[in-house]
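Notebook B, p. 112. Complex prediction, attempt 2.
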Amino acid sequence: MVERDPDQILHRFENYYAPKLIRSQLGEDGEHMARDFRLTQFHRHKYQGLVWDNRDVLEGSHVLEVGSNYGHWALLYHLTGAKSVTCLEPRSFQVDGLNSFARAEGLPLKAVQGTHQDCFDLARDFDVVMLCEIVLYLPDVYNFFRRLRTMADRVVLAHNVSLEGQPADSCTYRRRFNSFHRAPVDLRDRDYLLTKDGRQADVTEYNRQSGTKGECLSWFYGIDFMTGLLEHLGYRITRVTRPDMHQLYGQTLNRSNPTVYHDLVLETQR
Amino acid sequence: MRKKMVMNTDRNLETLKITLEIDDRRSQGAPAIDIVLGINRISSEHHFHIFPGRNTIKFSEAITHRGEQCLIMDIKQKDSRPLTGMITMTDLKIHGVSVGTYLYNCTYHPTEDGDGVPGGIVLNNHGRWLWPFHAPISENAGMKVGLW
């Protein structure tokens, strides 16, 4: 049964599901995290913007989430009304952990190992594709959105990230070093990405100064650049919102690259 | 939506499970090196031995207050010879999740009174290694350990 009260959804997530999800993914190492887990302001703000405000899109839908991490947002999509959620995630321990959690709890969540490039190999029977904080990492945004048009009826793009002061009609990048998969992903080296813990490089590689191993590019698309590209590809933009990064990430946010977020809801017209 | 205090039931801010991956490049059979660990102060409860080869050290400790904290590792020389550059810190995990390049936030103090080496992860068989961090980790947007 779908809860209609966001507080009740979050309460059930915090007290029942989240500790089990953490244990299934991190095992003994995550025991303290599971026991101590409490929702933070980040979770509440992100839930509000990403999930609750999009419940009209999610309700009754079969959802594909590209880049699902622990699968906690996928779970919240379901608790807020999505009929099922398929999660695409490169790190095998997270894929295995989410699948075992979903089986134990009898939830309609399924994780598949892969990156955004693999979503086109899946059956095209989704209603909604959720892209949560992955567009920043895509080097081939034009082709990705061109092919994505046939995957689902609607796409939620959260977040489109641009640099503060960047012209709205421009695209730019920053070179970064990636030591774990949460950071930008260098898709030139997919085999290395798909190691058990999902890392592309560790400090040992960094110490060896092995060329650009682990280096990657973060892409920043101005909002006019992104909306122009999407409209050119035939998407209809039905909603644009601008979440406050400080509300989301609080005081510990790394401000070395001040950024601006936009969230978009798109219709694919497939 | 209603707000809640972020604090666990035993009045600690959070309890951290720390894993250190340490590579000891001395030859097999070399005597163990003693290390003592703790957060903000070393604790005899967290006393371990490092042997030649790859070492995984795990311990848990409660954090009681918000703000700056420091993971401390004291290396006790047991071998009569001071050895240089034999131990490498290869990874640090919190709750099983690697902190990645945040490992380089550390400082290594080879001696009590000398200058520290910022980002020093190659250590001798003596000295103190410090790794500062901001708690609660569960709210640390830089490290993103947890359900982010």
